Amino acid sequence: EGHLVESGGGLVQPGGSLRLSCAASGLTFVDYTMAWFRQVDGQERERLVCISRYGLNTDQADSMKGRITISTDKFKTTLYLAMNNLKPEDTGMYYCAADRADCDPDIREYDYAGQGTQVTVSS
C-alpha cells in the first residue's frame, strides 16, 4: 500500500520561494505518474504539473506557468515542487498524487494522494 506525505509549506512573503516535498513509501516513482495539485479557496483542485510514467511532462498550469519546477530525487522516492515569485493568490493547500496510468487533470483519478501542505503567501 502506497503512502504520500507532503511537507515544506508555510508562510512566505509575496515574491518569495518555497520548495515542497512529497515523500513516498510503499511505491517508487519509476512505476507511477506523479503530479502536483493545489486547492485555493473556493476553487476545485487544480493540477499544476505532472510527470508521466511514460516519460513526458505535462504543461504547467497557466496560474503558475514559469514559476514552478517539478523534480525527483535520484532514488525516485521524493518528489519536489520548487515555486518562486509567489503571489497571495497562490495561497492554498498543495497536494501530490501518484497513479499507475497516465497524467489526468482530476486528482480523484489517482491511486494515491497525500493530505496536503498549506502554503500561505502574505506580507
Please mark out the parts with pLDDT under 50 across 5 or more consecutive residues, or reply none: none
Biggest pleated-sheet summary = 6 strands, mixed
What structural category characterises the helix and strand content?
mainly beta
Q: How many E strands? A: 10
* Secondary-structure element string: EEEEEEEEEE
N/C terminus separation: 40 Å
Query: Helical region count?
Result: 0
Q: Helical proportion?
A: under 10%
- Gross morphology: globular
**Overall residue-averaged pLDDT value:** 94
Query: In angstroms, what is the radius of gyration?
Result: 13 Å
Strand content bin: 35-45%
What does this structure look like?
The structure is a single chain. With 123 residues, the protein is mainly β. Helices cover 0% and strands 45% of the residues. Strands 2, 4, 5, 8, 9 and 10 form a six-stranded mixed β-sheet that branches. Strands 1-3-7-6 form a four-stranded antiparallel β-sheet, with no helix packed on it. A hairpin with a 5-residue loop joins strand 6 and strand 7. 33% of the residues are buried. The mean pLDDT is 94.
Quick take:
This protein is mainly beta and 123 residues long. It has strands spanning 3-7, 10-12, 18-25, 33-39, 46-51, 68-72, 78-83, 92-99, 112-113, 117-121.
